[in-house]
Amino acid sequence: MEDAGWPAAVEPVPVRDEAWDTFQTVELRPHPELEEERQVAVALEYGMEQRRLKVRVRQAIVQ
What we know:
alpha+beta
């Protein structure tokens, strides 16, 4: 009988995760239903400018 042997190893093809590899910028703001005083506090605590904070995140996070 012939020696069949093991098949040659096949390298796995890496799968590209488009949503993970893509970045986008989201804009965060204090919730509009918060009292004015609390909106100001949130903006100060997070270092917002004009009560807006832009954050660069992976697209998979915001889907």
